[in-house]
Every structure is written in structure tokens, then in C-alpha cells.
Amino acid sequence: MALSLAFLGPQGTYSEQAALAYRQYLNDAAIALKDFPSILQAIQAVADGRAELAIVPVENSIEGSVTVTLDALWKWSNLRIQDALVLPIANTLITRAQSLSEVQVLYSHPQPLGQCQHWIKTHCPQATLVPTRSTAEALRHVVEASTAAAIASQRAADLYGLPVLAHGINDQADNCTKFLILGQTESTHGSYTALAFSLGINQPGSLLKPLQILAAAGINLSRIESRPTKRSLGEYLFFLELEASAQEATTQQALADLRQCTETLNIFGSYEVRSVPSAPVPLDRTVN
Question: In this structure, which CATH number among 3.40.630.30, 1.10.760.10, 3.10.20.30, 3.40.190.10 belongs to the domain 1-88+175-187+272-288?
């Protein structure tokens, strides 16, 4: 039976592009790509056992964290990070309008709208911004109205046969998004380890103690992020990415020490962070 990989669809999204790149990295053309209408539903498919893996965005270099992914990691304790992939993001303006001044409504996922906000204010200040569940979903509005535009990839424009009016509209040229590959299998091999914890008591030094443990062990943090616990205003969870493998003895001791000064500690596994070349991934219509 073919391995299944869930992602935010429909075809033409950056998530699908990441899924294709990861399938190419695994060198397994038999992996079945399964599209879902939201990031949360793609993750839930793995948590429920309806898909073996999911590839979902977790952080963008311009807009920051994708909070739905962080919240889902904490919600479903059976999820583990298998791998991570960094995808270059080159946004384009897709529209049947003949000029930027003709664009009245601009559709896209909230992340690209944020990644291009300064460009939009400069070149399409008259446009009303409308968020959609995905960049590919935004394209149907371009088909329906000549004054509508969408922000998506060149690949999406090619896939749906739609014209591009402006290329490279990111506010920063080196725009990229980090994707996590999630599954239920425990992953221990890799140069990075992800975890999250809650603190039982909100008092001076509560957060300092866990950080001191990691510093004393010589473990560097590549990322730290807080999210509300959703129990009470002012209570937070802390998500950390360590530049260390959970297999190392020093990391194992540090994790054991962390358990002594946190309320709940969830370890999501060790993994590598892989970069995707800037070259476009070939069109692929084999999505279930």
C-alpha cells in the first residue's frame, strides 16, 4: 500500500509544491499526495490515521509563525516531526486585468497577503484584500472576474492557465517558508529537536529556569515561540527548536532536567532541516 502525504490543497498551493519536492527527495513516486481544504484538516488526517504523513507550513521568513500548526502539535500528542523542509517562496500577481490600476479585489491566503503588504500598498492601493483558505483557492476568483487578482506561485498560474501581471512581489527577495513533515512514528535522528512546555506557576524566574538548563548544557536555540494555553488569559506554552539531537547524552540529560521545572513537556522528535533549490518543481497532476 502506497504511503500517503497530506497537504493544504487544492493543486497549485505552496504546500503542494513542498509535498512534491519532499516526494522527490524521498525518491518514491508511489507516495500518494492527498489534498485537504485546511492546514488543520491535513494535520488531523495524520492524527486520526487517515494519512501516514502531512507536510504543513510552520514559519515564514517575513510573516513569522503559522500558529495553527503549533497549536495542533500541542493538541494531538501522538504527532511527531519526521523532517523539515525550507521552500523558497516567489509570489506573483495573477489576473486577467491589463494593468494594476484595474485590480479592484485581491485574493490570497493571509500569509502571502502579509508577505506582499508593502508591494500591495504601493502598486494596488485601491484593491480590497480578501483572505482565502489557500493561494490556489484564490485563483477561482480570477477566473470569475477580470478586475480580480490573486497572489500565488508561477506554478499555480501555469497549472490553471492564468496570466501573470507582476512577478516577484514579495516585500523581501529571500522569502521562504519552513514546512514540517508530521507523522506518528517517533523520530530520533537529526540535528534539530523540537519541544514545547507549559509552566505550572507564573512567577519571576519560571521561564528562566528551563532556558538556564539548556544554556548550561551548551544547547543553542534556533527558535522560541509562545502561544496561549487557551486555559486562562496570560498563560502561555513555549515552543523551542534546539540545535541538538535527542540522541545525544547531554540533550537527554537536559530534557530530563526540563521535566523537573515544567508542568507539561512534549518532545516532538529530532529531524533534519532540508533546503529546496530555487528551481521550480515540474507540474504534477497526480493528486488524490
Answer: 3.40.190.10
